[in-house]
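Pilot study result, target chain (614 residues):
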Amino acid sequence: MIQIYEAGNRDYEKNGDAVLRPISCEVEEILKGTWELTLENPPDENANLIKSGAVIKADTNIGEGQLFRIHEHEKSDSGVTAKAYPIFYDCGKEVAILDKRPTNKTGNEALQILTQGTQYTAESDIRSSRTAYFIKMNLLQAINGDDENSFINRWGGEPIYNNYHVTLNKRAGGDHGARVAFGYNLQGIKEHVNFDNVITRIIPEAYNGYMLDGDKPWVDSQNIKKYPIIYTKVVQYSDIKLQEDCTGEDEKGYETMEELRAALVERAKQDFTNGVDKPEVSYDINFVPLENTVEYEDIKDLVKINLGDSIECENKNLDIVTKGRVTSLTYDCVLKRISNLHIGDIESNYFDKMSLVMQAAAKAITESGGLKGEKIIGIMNAAITQLRAQSTRAKKAEVVAMICEDLDPESPDFGAMCIGTKGFMIASERTADGKDWDWRTFGTGYGFIADCIVAGLLASRNYNEETGEGFYINLDTGEASMNNAHLKGEIESKRDGYGLYVSITPGAISLLSDFNGKKVRVFRISGGATLDEATGDLRGVTPYITMGPKSNSFSIQFEDNIMNAWRFGKTGIKDSGTYVQGAKSGRAEFSDGTYLDFSKGWLSGGRDKNGNEF
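Predicted structure:
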């Protein structure tokens, strides 16, 4: 029985204002998506009751007496058509959340905080603890909205609506051992088969490029002969390493190449077990045309399936068995049965795919916010591998570019990002005339352009920390290194200390030193130069810069062999070397007896903190 309650009638425990006799009444349920009832009614005596705000009561696959509020209706000579949402959606209109902050709460605990003091109830089996801030939003947005703090984005879950109650378990439905057979040319079944991501021959590759030995360095699937061609792919397992390639303290690798190769074989076999050797198969089933067919016997049990349930699907034509889930269904409230069903794969969450990378990144960050350099390369390799794998699963879109923007200047999300096949661009401000975004950050396949880049370590591709080859700048510490030449400057000067600022500009290098708070000299090196004491410029001769790799020392030598040298401490210039005329002495002496040996480029003549001579 399908009943209707006028908008002012909230006594849903009693009979409604009228019993409807609709031409059709169906509820479409989409996993992690919108639920909606669609009703078509003839122009009878009850047609005038069917209008926005009224409530329809019908039995569905969820249970008897499910309530749906009409949000849209259309009348004509042939009758009235109405669309309605589950009555739980009313919480999006009548329950405002000003500020609720469940902190370190399980899924169920968070839901109790959100629904406290309302007529709505919720439950969840999610035991992981999370924290979220629900500020100035309605209850429906807090539970199932797009905001990063919404329940489904922080805790996860797949909602099942049952009147004023919602269940948000980790997954809807279950795996009850259901198995059906497909492969008949039936009018009521549409089969979708995609071979784009199938792999039946894996060429496994470990970290550092290690592969299986021999002329056939691959692992074959048991299904390799079921398809007309062999689907071959090199698969990188960057987490499989030799022990000698491990750099982290808690990282473990394989002692021998034989053990590593055995691990590669096992990993490839596991991927086949996980189904990489099977195509993506989905089915759209319309049960009505199938009832009187003999072949219907093979799928009739599907009418007992619910949203989210897992199903083993035997494809007789391909001779394979795949596993899918009910990702959407349509329930006929007049005939009281499922009329349509979609079996396939639910879209995977991006952050689920990135979870391993994020965990690895966390291990590379120190408590003070710095980076453990030895972790970075492995993390990036893992990220690149997973992102490349993701690209093979990506769905093609009909557009070549899209824009995401928030035009409200008062919004914390004010800004825009445009992304497409040619690259991306980001803006945080509008242009002066307000007609467009002031794009300032760009990324393409050839590189990146931005007004401001916040970074810690910039390094060349060939930089090697052990040998000193290559070039890097540490923006956090002020250190720079180029092919074993190392320089560290302190920008901040102190009352009783020393400061040093080094800037590198196109065609010139300048050094500004600060001695006891007073500027000493500025050397501008742009070719030949002599030292002009008045201006600090070098004119007429070519200077050479020497930086000691084994000490805190720095010197400048000119063509006429006039030299200046400095010694640096933790806060900058610690001692100024003797101004030497002529190169025969070969060194600049400091006040404590040590000296800078120009022939060697490092400090000599003293003792270190352990008493050893240097």
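One observation from the pilot: The two ends are 97 Å apart (CA to CA). A full batch analysis is planned for the follow-on phase.
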